[in-house]
Amino acid sequence: MTDWSSGYVTELGYTHGYYSQLKPLLMRQALRRQGVHHSTAKKLRYLELGFGQGLSLNIHAAATGGEFWGCDFNPTQVANAQELAAASGANVTVLDASFEELALRTDLPTFDVIALHGIWSWISDANRRHIVEIARRHLAVGGVFYVSYNTTPGWSPAMPLRHLMTLHTEFVSGKASGLETRIDAALGFAQSLADGNAAYFRANPAVLKRLKTITAQPRAYVAHEYFNADWHPMAFSDMAEHLSEAKLSFAASAHLLDHVDAINLTPDQQKLLHGQSHPVLRESVRDYLVNQQFRRDLWVRGPRPMAPLVQAELAQSQSYALVMVRENIPLKVQGLLGEIELQPAVYNPLLDALATKGYAAKTLGELRQLLPDLSPQQVAEGLLILSGMGCVEPAQTPEAVRAAKPACDRLNAHLFKQAMHSGDVLYLASPVTGGGIGVNRFQQLFLKALKGGKKTPPEWAQEAWDTLFVQGQRLTKEGKVMETPEENLTELRRQAAEFEAKSLPVLRSLQVA
Questions:
Q1: Cα–Cα distance between 284 and 41 in angstroms, integer?
Q2: Contact 419, 50 (CB under 8 A)
Q3: 248, 299 in Cβ contact below 8 A?
Q4: Strand 111-116 and strand 139-150: pairing?
């Protein structure tokens, strides 16, 4: 019998996650920050390889516009992605295909973006070669290639732990017991070695901490992260060698906080890093300085430096939107040097300005006019850090927002219906940001009630409770299940009132509500 999965976990479904690094607008922000030209075709063509449940693919297709393609080898996940695509009506082509099958196709267009998140480290060398061939043949000159992957040296100490756990599932746990049970047994076995004072764990105390973290994680995530047949953390230099065959050059990190040296590197480390002229050596040195475990890279086919004047003009016209409740944003950021306090004299007025006019998006130029006491550098750096924290996101032009709104509304309406019976999807599509916005299940039910004509928080809470009650579902608070209808309804009313006062104005500004 043919193993169509190629050793990839299919017994437990992949999570319904959303990954903002796949968003075209964020890619542009990162590349502009580094002064790198890239393809700016009027009609974006975008390919996502290995899209999982297809949530990111479909949110970006609905919220960004253009022509989106995606492939995944798992037919169950393809069916889910096709359902989302049909709901939104966006221009999405969803393919049930392996990377080898996709590489052999002759009908693919040229893409401005090819992206894969959480794929590269968990597939075979043969599949990596197929991906490089797809990029070589189908990525436009000036096109962007996004790839995330586990890397060394950060993963090096924990690689034997993963090896030990997979050995246990192979040689001890019977397949008839089910993967989730086998994972539990493997984790328990690893913990027994740690409890037995194994020298490996004594020499690598961080690995014991990682084991405790893994044990607490959902088993579907653990299965896909650690128990695939292929699992290959890769050094940046090896990645560069692979991608050179597709004429790709490293351009920028898609993780915006990586662009801020002051929160990640000491002055001496910054000096050492900037003394490296070769880009491969420089990125490798940085990985050693920060003990990098996971990279989120943007590569460009034929990168060109952006003239400073062009870079400044593009930055000046870019809009930004606050995507969190103003009062909930902490004045601290987590860098690799630890938790850094943000300057209140800079960040309070900047956040206040972003929250004015009902959280409406504002260009960098408009923000500078609203903040005459702050320097242009302070405003730009503040927006970068707030974007990296996930509090602020770059926004689309008004024309793009208008074009994207109908598809976003249709996709969100479909997700509201899913929220009636499931809490799997915790994001909705925003035409303002061109991407996903975190909205929990109960908030989605409140929005469904609001869009259905219910006007007050008590009405939203009642409709949400009616939905839960008929399914025998109950709320939990502080780890305890609320048993009586009165307790559940009281808690839902509290959440609905808080939602109206805090989150709803933000979601309205993002055209999600």
A1: 32
A2: no
A3: yes
A4: parallel
Cα separation, 320 vs 293, whole angstroms: 30
Report percent pLDDT > 70 for the chain: 96
Two tokens, residue 190: 């690893």
Return the SS3 of 432. coil
> Contact at 8 Å (CB) between 300 and 143?
yes
pLDDT in tens, 119-138: 999 999 999 999 999 999 99
- Nearest to residue 94, comparing CAs of 52, 43, 138? 52
What are the CA-CA distances from residue 22 to residues 25, 100, 149, 200 (Å)? 9, 22, 14, 37
Q: How far apart are the first and last CA of the chain?
A: 49
pTM of the shown model: 0.92
| Mean pLDDT, all residues of the chain | 94
| Encoded tokens for 395 | 């926004």
CA distance 243 to 317: 33
Say how many C-beta atoms besides its own lie within 10 A of residue 86's C-beta.
Answer: 14
**CA dist 426 → 17, 170, 382, 422 (Å):** 8, 35, 27, 10
Residue of 373, 336, 335, 377 whose CA lies nearest to 352: 373
Instruction: Supply the DSSP symbol for 292.
Output: -
- 59-101, pLDDT tens digit by residue? 999 999 899 999 999 999 999 999 999 999 999 999 999 999 9
H helix intervals, 125-251: 125-138, 159-171, 179-195, 199-203, 205-216, 219-226, 236-244
CA distance to 65, 179, 349, per residue, from 428 (Å): 16, 31, 29
Determine the Cα–Cα distance for residues 265 and 276; give it in Å rounded to an integer.
15
> Which amino acid is present at 178?
G
Three-state DSSP class for residue 144:
strand
The total of other beta-carbon atoms located within 10 Å of residue 182's CB is 24
Within 13 Å and on the Cβ side, how many CA atoms surround 170?
10
**pLDDT confidence of 259, banded at 50, 70, 90?**
very high
Residue 43: CB atoms within 10 A of its CB come to 9
| Amino acid identity, position 242 | H
Q: Do residues 383 and 412 touch, judged by C-beta distance below 8 A?
A: no
At residue 3, the 3 state secondary structure works out as coil
SS3 category, 73: coil
Residue 249 phi/psi, 5-degree rounding, is: -120, 140
Lowest-confidence region among 43-52, 204-213, 223-232:
223-232
Supply the DSSP symbol for 502.
I
Q: Give the list of residues 6+ apart from residue 76 with CB closer than 8 angstroms, or none.
A: 10, 13
Pairing of strands 67-72, 92-96: parallel
Q: Which two tokens stand for residue 405?
A: 């709104």
Residue 1 in this model has a pLDDT that exceeds 50: no
Residue 153: is the preceding peptide bond cis (ω within 30°)?
Answer: yes
Query: Is the per-residue pLDDT at 258 higher than 50?
Result: yes
Q: Is the pLDDT of residue 270 over 90?
A: yes
Residue 333, phi then psi, degrees to nearest 5: -130, 145
